[in-house]
Design a protein that fits this description.
This protein has 287 residues and is of the alpha/beta class. The protein has helices spanning 7-18, 35-46, 75-85, 95-98, 117-120, 124-139, 151-163, 193-198, 201-214, 220-231; strands at residues 2-4, 24-29, 50-55, 89-91, 143-147, 169-173, 237-242, 245-246, 258-268, 271-281. Helix content is 36%, strand content 20%. The strands form 2 sheets. The chain has a 6-stranded parallel sheet with strand order 1-4-3-2-5-6, with helices on both faces. Strands 7, 8, 9 and 10 form a 4-stranded antiparallel sheet that branches. The structure holds adenosine monophosphate. Residues 29-30, 36-37, 39-40, 146-147, 149-150, 173, 175-176, 183-186 line the site of adenosine monophosphate.
Length: 287
């Protein structure tokens, strides 16, 4: 695995990799890697592609007062893990490389970016869309792999790619979990042992909702109620939202049909936690 820091180096290395006619698969990350990230690398590898991973803590997707400064940074450990996982090229740019002095362009996505994280973290998805566009432009991958863990981000990236006609296929990877169900996240490192235990309430609530759906429930209001009841059993958890949305538009639905996502988000102590359930149900989605 090669590590590059400059765009010129990156482009030269990608050109060399592509020479043999192989596809380039790209996995953008903010580092502090875990098995969830590595599963995305594995998805790219299984498609027979050469794999480029970026590790970049993107300042423009953090709001004032958020955890930009304390976000875990461990590039050497990340590089070791990526080498082991079979990554071909690691792109490790500086903030000044991605956002040189004088840069003044931001991408603003509506649609799937409306509501939920978009509402709670104003400007967050503009930062995500901007860095993803810059990274796609630098790497020029055939496809890019994103985690279903960040379901609204995935919907926003799909919206971005559709709207700007970007020549990149978006591939989704399922959420990797700890043995007790907690979705893996770099931010789980912030949790104290008691908070870590409380955090399992998200996956428990989603499992309860999944059981209701398996038993035939299709009313979104009933699922929402079930989620809230379950989430309320954990006093340390402060709910931001729990809803049922269309997977493509990320807007709420009244009945479960087609591809739907059940996103849940909130805080345990100072740590924000996100999880969701992805479902493919009979019938037409929407409404
Ligand atoms: P991040 O480093 O948090 O920006 O995440 C980089 C990529 O990894 C994003 O596409 C995330 O959705 C994905 N990801 C994060 N956590 C997981 C997980 N537990 N399972 C699968 N993918 C994940």
């Amino acid at each position: 695995m090669r590590t590059v820091r400059e765009p010129a180096e990156l482009q030269m290395a990608v050109r060399q990799l592509r020479r043999d006619g192989m596809e380039i698969g790209f996995v953008p990350t903010m580092g502090a890697l875990h098995a969830g990230h590595l599963s995305l690398v594995e998805i790219a590898r299984r498609r027979g592609a050469l794999v480029v991973v970026s590790v970049f803590v993107n300042p423009t997707q953090f709001g004032p007062g958020e955890d930009l400064d304390r976000y875990p940074r461990q590039p050497e450990r990340d590089a070791g893990m990526l080498h082991e996982a079979g990554c071909d090229l690691l792109f490790l740019p500086s903030v000044e490389t991605i956002y040189p002095p004088g840069n003044a362009t931001r991408i603003h996505v509506e649609g799937a970016a409306r509501g939920y994280e978009g509402k709670l973290r104003p400007g967050h998805f503009d930062g995500v869309a901007t860095v993803v566009t810059i990274l796609f432009q630098l790497v020029r991958p055939n496809f890019a792999v994103f985690g279903e863990k960040d379901a609204q981000q995935l919907a926003v990236v799909r919206q971005l790619v559709r709207d700007l006609h970007l020549p990149v296929e978006i591939v989704a990877g399922p959420t990797k979990r700890e043995p007790d169900g907690l979705a893996m996240s770099s931010r789980n490192a912030y949790l104290s042992p008691a908070e870590r235990e409380a955090a399992t309430v998200l996956s428990r609530a989603l499992a309860a909702a999944g059981d209701e759906i398996a038993a035939g429930e299709r009313r979104a209001a009933a699922i929402r109620r079930r989620l809230r009841d379950e989430l309320q059993t954990e006093p340390r958890f402060e709910l931001d939202y729990a809803d049922v949305v269309d997977a493509l538009t990320f807007q709420p639905v009244t009945r479960l049909a087609g591809r739907v996502v059940i996103p849940v988000a909130g805080r345990v102590g100072n740590t924000r936690l996100l999880d969701n359930l992805q479902l493919e149900l009979p019938g037409e989605s929407g409404g």
